[in-house]
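input
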Amino acid sequence: MIDLQQATQTLREKGVVVFPGLYADLSAALLQEHHRCFAETLPGLKLAPPMDGEKILPARAIDLVNHQLTTLHQCLFPDWFRQLGAQYFQCSDSRNDFASICEDTFKHDRQGPGNHHPHWDPTLSLRLMLYVSDVTAENGAIQVKPGTHYRNHQARLDQWKKHIPYQDPCPCSGTTLPYESIEGRAGTAVVFDVSVTHRKGTVSKEARRSVAFSHIHSPLAQLQLAGTPFNAIPPSLLWPHGNPDDQ
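output
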């Protein structure tokens, strides 16, 4: 049973909360369905443009149901995640419609594009990261700098207000802070505010990381994605989750 109040408090303080082995009893089914995503041609779905060391299959929630990827759907779109998003963003409209199924391998060019660079994401959103395989430092465990989410969100707002395009990779808060590597067995769920400074760890040669993601966009993110000018945003939506003074 997930304590949503405690999870929300941890998210506000650190920007990340971990549920070790939450879906461990479903790990075999998850791995089988994850394999199908890359071994079969699923009508209506196609891989994102190829990138060194990364294969990504974007999908909607309904796509997973239509292709009998029911365990992935169950774990990526649970009620508790929507409820957590509603509490964290203090809203009733916590949209959770899209997923990414990912297979990560050794990256030959560490200077090339990819999520291995420190970054925060363009919108104020929550991400549910599902470990389909065991994830360790050897196969690319995500690395985060807890507590950096408020400063990075301030940078996001400043850029939006000044019409500065998002940079990838982008300057990040917490340059002097150490990274924390989030390792976990298959079935572990990690929820984090994508404002937190984070990066994918290094996948060793011959290693592989099988994960999947879904997202909840805050009302602020929904307006930003719709192209709403910053000066038209209600002030109450700018800091629903806290502010830099809370750090």
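quick obs: Helices lie at 4-14, 27-39, 61-66, 70-76, 79-89, 149-161, 219-225.
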